[in-house]
Amino acid sequence: MLPLPVFLVDSLRAHRVGQLEDRIGAGPMWQESGLVFTSSTGRPLDERNVTRVFERLLTAAELPRVRFHDLRHSCASLLLAQGIPPRVVMEILDHSQISITMDTYSHVIPALAQDAVDSGRRGARGLGFELRLARALPRSRTAAPGERCSP
Question: One digit per residue, pLDDT tens: the chain, 151 residues?
Fold first, then answer.
């Protein structure tokens, strides 16, 4: 099962209500397909119509023109850029192997590596303070294995 954010679950439930209304309105013309997104008579959506509507939405939102399929790539790239583990991204995209995900989205990895290094550099600055503090504290003997240390 694909995990979905709450706002999307709510939207899909509202969509389902609209689809049930379409079904009632279509009467005997309704074709049960089991699909989430259908025409007003239950038939699969025509690819050209989906593309036209998508392009109109992009224009209305003043966004650059992209292919509908590019949304899948954008989603994967954004998930990886947010630090979501590649294995989780693989499962969301329903790739059969991690190598497919990594080969397809390897262009995102160098930016992640730089972020990790920068993050490590920030952490190292904080660590420097901790090391100086540790050096300033009196040394205590190390506990033997199984021995408890008292404060």
Answer: 778 889 999 999 999 999 999 999 999 999 999 999 999 999 999 999 999 999 999 999 998 898 988 888 888 888 888 888 889 999 988 899 988 888 887 766 666 666 666 665 555 454 454 444 445 444 444 444 444 444 4
Which run of H or of E encompasses 112?
helix 109-136
Contact (CB, 8 A) for 58 and 66:
yes
What is the spatial distance between Cα 41 and Cα 26, in angstroms, rounded to a whole number? Answer: 6
> Do 109 and 80 form a contact (C-beta atoms < 8 A)?
yes
Residue type, 29: M
SS3 category, 36: coil
**The pair of three-digit structure tokens given for residue 128, joined into one six-digit string:** 């420097």
